[in-house]
Amino acid sequence: MTTTIFIARDSTAIAVGADGIAAQISAQCDQNQHPVQIARPGSRGMYWAEPLVEVEINGVRHGFGPVTSDAVAGLCDLICPLDRAPIDPKVFKQHPLYLGDLSHHAYLAAQQRLLFARAGLIDALDLTQYERLGGLRGLRRALASNSQSIIDQITESGLRGRGGAAFPAGIKLKAAAEAEGVNKYIVCNADEGDSGTFADRLLMEADPFQIIEGMLIAALATGATRGYVYLRSEYPLTASLFGQALVLAREHGLLGPSIYGSSHSFDIELRIGAGAYICGEETSLLESIEGRRPEVRSKPPLPVHHGLFNSPTVINNVLTLASMTSIMAEGAQAYHDLGAGTSRGTQPFQLAGNIRFGGVVEVPFGVSLRTLIEEFGGGTASGRPIKAVQTGGPLGKYLGVRQLDVPMTYEDLASAGGLLGHGGIVVFDDSVDMAQQARFAMAFCAAESCGKCTPCRIGSVRGVEILDRIKTGKNLEKEIKLLDELCVTMTDASLCAMGSMTPNPVLSALTIGPEDFGLPAGSRHPTES
Amino acid sequence: MSKTLSKPIETIFDAHRPLSQDKLLPVLIEVQKISGALSGETINLIAQAFNLSRAEVKATASFYSDFTDAPRSLPNVQNCQAEACQAMGARDLLAHLKDVWSEHYDIEVVYCLGHCACAPAIRLNGCDHARLTVDRLNSVLKV
Ligand SMILES: Cc1cc2nc3c(=O)[nH]c(=O)nc-3n(C[C@H](O)[C@H](O)[C@H](O)COP(=O)(O)O)c2cc1C
Ligand code: SF4
Ligand code: FES
Q1: Is B76-142 a domain of CATH 3.40.50.720?
Q2: Is A114 close to ligand 1, i.e. is its CB under 6 Å away?
Q3: Taking the alpha carbons of A213, A214, A215, A217 in that order, is the dihedral positive or negative?
Q4: Could you report the predicted ipTM of this complex, rounded to two decimals?
Q5: CA of residue A529 to ligand 3 center, whole Å
Q6: Which end of chain B is more exposed for a tag (fewer CB within 10 A), N or C?
Q7: Any idea which ligand is nearest the CA of B120?
């Protein structure tokens, strides 16, 4: 009997050696004359365990990871023994990399996966497997209902945008549905530029049909006939897999002039960026698709009224659109039952940086940051104490150790001065120099500013200069005052969040680590940290 | 205008006709890929084909960090210097790259390759390596 072995085809898994491990195992199985089939699904998002090797025995997937090339020979003795000797899962336990039956592994069992329910379980490009594990149910229900009831479902679910601004998804759909215009567009924002985030990439690689299905639901809700997916160029494997998924979707009548034989037509074009963080901002993204220099547009008009090619346009993050599939499949109430406050449903948190068990943790909103970092993440990778945690990407605030009990909802994080953003969590241990992080935030803004407004374009450069002078220790009080003033100007007078939110990481770095700026510990707003 | 340059570029144009402005970015990406750069001469060709001013094309192309004016003479190493990689020693990695490898590689700083759970990361000639240490970096660059 052929043994099936699963090894992820996923950008990060490959970056830590998955392709090499797959080739080595395949060669070793040949040598052992043990017939195996090596399957390459997406990753489960347990990145700490990648390269993760799973062997399926009687329907149970036994995991081993992270597998290094030195470990392959020993592992093959167990999972593809010489001359088809019987495989005995009972001896797996003795292997130091054995993780057990993965469906019961604590890291996964403690999650509540809606978006990532299929990730790692199915062949990303097999529509039949997608459908068998619950795919397309949402679309079928959407096709059987009408625009208004789709909008009602999404609105009642409480779904908010997962790209950063957390705008209610139902309201956006409604506005686009009501807007005048013959050609309407659904644009999927897959620019995912925030450091510490990778959920969009993982989902596009592991379960691409879910995103296509979500875009179709948004199209049925608004009457849009064309869609774009704007993907950052840093993700070439994602582009290839998602591009193949689009071709398959067309072949199966999921995209094209008549969606599943209905009167609705919809097709999607995949667009690749060219290395610019600001293109994740929705209006810059539209300019980029239109082929102009992608400077941020002033609002109004809003994209829902005058968006792509001046037509009504819904722009949503990958995860927002994908969430519409489970809302339509299970109903708004089931989704709304999860979460806390006005943060409904689940959020894939992404544990990154100095963390022992980095990866995607999808749980309902309301979990504490500490639970995510300590219980799922296992604390720092270095074993040293945590000094700072940045949530919500490069424009998010650094939180100190005393703020880790904050519940992860939009409101609670906002009242702690933090940002949920796209769900990224970047952990730093006590070797971090907060003055260096503050300088980086200004330098990043200077590098990535679109240049349209002065406080951001020039202010960020001045910010770097001030922080360099602070490092010398001269005129400290005067320089800090200048930095504070500059931050007020940037916050108040920038057109978009790039300029207006860069002060978040800068000033919070000062609060958490004043000693790194040459100030006495606890000297900055002691009440805040 | 050199014929060897314009021929493959014509093929790219043909694949995207009609050349409305929204095709500009895909064309720039493909031209950069086959020629290794967007030279002044290429920008002229593209501007003509799209019926845009040279300045407009240049202003668009120069906005993006993926485009270069001249082909790189050395193999390219993109070193991630964004926060998650910083938290795992990316700055030391960059210092080491500059100290030891700058004669053999073109070293470029980028912000996030999406491997933030296995930081720090680099992209070497399009191939990614994550969970790096200085030793692992050396062994990756040696081959
Ligand atoms: C500087 C900047 C970068 C952004 N980058 C992204 C991004 O990479 N992905 C994303 O979905 N949204 C990003 N956004 C947010 C978008 O502007 C927009 O709010 C979002 O795409 C709307 O979709 P949502 O409602 O589903 O979140 C960014 C915003 C700013 C200001
Ligand atoms: S704040 Fe910065 S990025 Fe945003 S529009 Fe102004 S210059 Fe451009
Ligand atoms: S921060 Fe380096 S890969 Fe994301």
Answers
A1: no
A2: no
A3: positive
A4: 0.96
A5: 27
A6: C
A7: 3
